[in-house]
Input
Amino acid sequence: MRQLRGRVQDKLLNHLLFLDHSDPRFFVARRYELECLDLLHKLTILALEGEHQLSERLAKRCLRLAQEGEFTSYAEQAAQRLRILYAERGEQSEYLLIDKELRRLRQLLEWEQEAEQLSLEVRLNMVKTVTKRHDILLKVPAYLERLVALYELAGSFNTFVALYRLQLVYAELVGKYDDIVYYTEQADKLLAEDKLNPRRFDSRFNHFMSVYAHLRSRQAAKGLQLADEYAQEIHPTSSNWFFFYEHFLLLALHAANYEKASLLLHVVQKNPSFAKQRPAALARWELLEAYVELLQPASQVAPQQRNRMALFAALTVPEYTRDKRGHNVAILVFQLLHYLQQRNLEPVLARLERLRKYQQRHLRDAAALRSRTFLRLLLLLPEAEFDPAELARRGNKLLAQLRQAPLVGEAEAEIEIVPYEDLWKFTLDVLRQGAPG
Output
């Protein structure tokens, strides 16, 4: 049985050779990298078979393609094959020329490998404990300084991308999302000016990060416009499609374009792969759907949607870990607002008590300032006897604090599904239509 399984696996692996790598769903660099690898494989076999003339021709072609694509390691291998060939044939002038080029490539490769080492060290420690992440975060500024120096020395795509990726990671970790917007805009500018290799640069990733950064830096209107523009670049079967549309929908909610948010939700739910997502991802979409429907005018919410909202509001909130506190707060707040909208006093008071306990237990650190401040606003509801005018007066100071609360890094907080300032306005609007009783 094991031998049969091995043979079947080998046959399946052989089919990898016939994949169409020009498919637009694949990363642009993939087809060029695999073309270089294919040539290296063929020229090596030809050299071993003594077919030196054809091997030389393929090696030159591989060297040219590798240099055009800035695949330095493949260029170095092709140049090494040519140097061996010229040495064996006693062709001194060709040998000296390729030897000089090989030394240049090896120096370039050394710089690129150092840049990659720094980038990978950060990536490795980002998936470890909080202490490890904190330790590596302290080293990142020095790593960035060295990567800038390496990019100035090499001027190659590989040194650029190591610097660019680490700049994005660091900016995200420290909550400087405006910096991410700047880095992504600069990358697009360099690409337009032919200063970045179009065979290597991943524009889709750059645009994905740009949309995400506009969301986190509270530039919702501009981010929504960009997301509309970039949406066609990501194929519906791509693993990043749902992540992109999650940010797209959040931008619509943050821009208070609730009609657009509803349309986007419909697009996502029509994707054939929607139900195949991980349970955690499906739970996020369920929460997003609840907020989208909550914010729609009552006349536009179908009875079936109202029933779903009622079921979601009645659910017992699971005991998430502290890392998941953002979702926990979002669920509790939704449930409170739903029952407030229904003017049902008893569950409103029950949710307020849960929010009070949750705030005391889990929202103590600096990263939770916005959530903590918003919950303090909501806890004013019974004190002001659900009077919107009195709530607006009492909440002025807390609302000002909320608006001034700094952004924090992705490692410390969840994205607000709807900005807390907008949810506070929604709360007052609901109460103006009638208090729970």
Observations:
- The longest helix spans residues 92-126.
